[in-house]
Amino acid sequence: xxxxxxxxxxxxxxxxxxxxxxxxxxxxxxxxxxxxxxxxxxxxxxxxxxxxxxxxxxxxxxxxxxxxxxxxxxxxxxxxxxxxxxxxxxxxxxxxxxxxxxxxxxxxxxxxxxxxxxxxxxxxxxxxxxxxxxxxxxxx
Length: 140
What we know:
alpha+beta
């Protein structure tokens, strides 16, 4: 297995993220077309693709608007949504010095700014990171 540097991994992850962001509206539009297609049969049970296509074309701006609003809400409120869904609380240095110092030392070793550290009260062993910009980076 060949060595892959951190910048290569970051570039790959960014490329995959963009592809997923493009694929999401396409998937929603495909689902809307499927629903419209399978609900536009005539009284004899025959499909009516021309009616389905016409209804779908009229629905595209509405669906696209909903997806864009969804993206805007997710972009600006993703951190708060994650905190609410997980019940995460901000971890202060004095509350758990060991964990805070570990994260701080790891950040210093790679020259990264210290992210906000949150803790989830759970017996499960798990951790993840979130954030779109350096000032919103959060470690949970």
